[in-house]
């Protein structure tokens, strides 16, 4: 059972990294097991557990979100809460087979605002240092899956792949070549909003349709 702790430090130690916890050669099962013991940054201190990626080992589509939410932190699986259910529906409507995808997050531990008694824990955006510290896990997942299309769900995912100047609004729905990451390239990237942004939108219907339209771009890439 989750018990609130004292909260997060304001900064991650410069140069902190998960690299020393990532096995040099491993399958997804071994990576997941190793990530459970990651201490690459301080986010593990308050999170219930590491939430590693999940999905098809041979996935053509690799979706990256920001970080696990409250439900994911408890369940230990990515995209199982309200945002995940919305993503499932949008993928189906766009013509992308959810069972043939791999989903993960740029950050593998839940960062949240310490809750008041009886309240749900609320997401807090991870810092650039936390995203950087967790990046070795993301690179290891990409090396194993080797997807054709990478879907960037939101700004944090985009910055994890393309760097701090990335802006979703400037790139969403437009296929671009993936940058070289640790000496490797992985097909095309398509950016869109995070499903949680759709849930927060004033015009949820329009925001949802925008997400579906961006995912249809992914479906067309798969038809080539």
Automatic annotation (TrEMBL):
| The organism's place on the tree of life at top rank | Bacteria
For this UniProt record, give its keywords in alphabetical order, as a comma-separated list.
4Fe-4S, DNA damage, DNA repair, Hydrolase, Iron, Iron-sulfur, Metal-binding
Gene3D superfamilies, sorted: Uracil-DNA glycosylase-like domain
Q: GO: which molecular function terms?
A: 4 iron, 4 sulfur cluster binding; deaminated base DNA N-glycosylase activity; metal ion binding
Instruction: Give the similarity note.
Output: Belongs to the uracil-DNA glycosylase (UDG) superfamily. Type 4 (UDGa) family.
Q: Which GO terms describe its biological process?
A: DNA repair
Under InterPro entries, the record lists: UDG_Type-4/5, Ura-DNA_glyco_family4, Uracil-DNA_glycosylase-like, Uracil-DNA_glycosylase-like_sf
- Uracil-DNA glycosylase-like domain ranges (all copies): 52-216
Keyword Hydrolase tagged: yes
Spell out the protein name for this chain. Type-4 uracil-DNA glycosylase
């Amino acid at each position: 059972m989750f018990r609130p702790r004292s909260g997060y430090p304001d900064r991650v130690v410069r140069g902190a990294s998960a690299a020393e916890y990532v096995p040099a050669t491993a399958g997804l099962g071994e990576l997941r097991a190793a990530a459970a013991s990651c201490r690459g940054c301080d986010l593990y201190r308050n999170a219930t557990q590491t939430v590693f990626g999940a999905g098809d080992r041979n996935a053509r589509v690799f979706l990256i979100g920001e970080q696990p939410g409250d439900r994911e932190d408890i369940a230990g699986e990515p995209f199982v809460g309200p945002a995940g259910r919305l993503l499932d529906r949008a993928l189906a409507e766009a013509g992308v087979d959810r069972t043939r995808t791999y989903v993960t997050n740029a950050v593998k531990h839940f960062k949240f605002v310490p809750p008041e008694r009886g309240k749900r824990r609320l997401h807090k955006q991870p810092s650039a240092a936390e995203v950087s510290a967790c990046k070795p896990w993301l690179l290891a997942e990409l090396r194993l899956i080797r997807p054709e299309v990478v879907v960037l769900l939101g700004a944090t995912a985009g910055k994890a792949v393309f760097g701090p100047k990335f802006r979703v609004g400037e790139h969403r729905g437009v296929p671009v070549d993936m940058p070289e990451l640790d000496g490797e390239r992985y097909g095309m990237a398509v950016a869109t909003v995070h499903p949680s942004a759709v849930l927060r939108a004033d015009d949820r219907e329009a925001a949802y349709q925008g997400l579906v339209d961006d995912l249809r771009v992914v479906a067309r890439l798969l038809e080539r």
